[in-house]
Design brief:
Layout: H1 56-59, E1 75-78, H2 79-87, E2 96-97, H3 99-104, E3 115-118, E4 128-130, E5 133-134, H4 136-144, E6 148-150, H5 162-166
Length: 167
Amino acid sequence: MKLNDVRDNSGAHYRAKRVGRGIGSGKGKTASRGGKGQTARSGVSLNGFEGGQTPLHRRLPKRGFNNSIFRNDFKAVNLGRLQRALDDGKLKPEGTLDGAALVACGMLRRLGDGVRLLAKGELRAAITIEAAGASKAAIAAVEKAGGKVILPIGSPKEAPTEETASV
């Protein structure tokens, strides 16, 4: 096979219809664009335009409320991903792991408003992790493995244990 033997499969490429090439072609003069006006010209995209009639998006009332620009942007980290990073040697279990350490090891691209720890996967190493938030299941799993989760002051803690409830 030579480079000059390479061809498309038959029917794979449809030759574009040449418009505006005389009345005998059937697509001459206005080239199927009608006569004059805005849409006869190139570069026209009138989304939602209904010919001067009030468009649907203006006929319907505004509804709802969106507060998403003020929402906190927490980065979710699952326990399974933490364990995989520990196994691969990207993270060291000693010391306190925080968002900056996760960004430095390449687990997160950016920190956002903090790390939220979730319980998907299994954690076998005893680690101390500082997070902006954590699910109750994640806290329980870390403590079961012999570790500790440090949450910011004022965040809701897990349910009181038997020893703190009896005191």
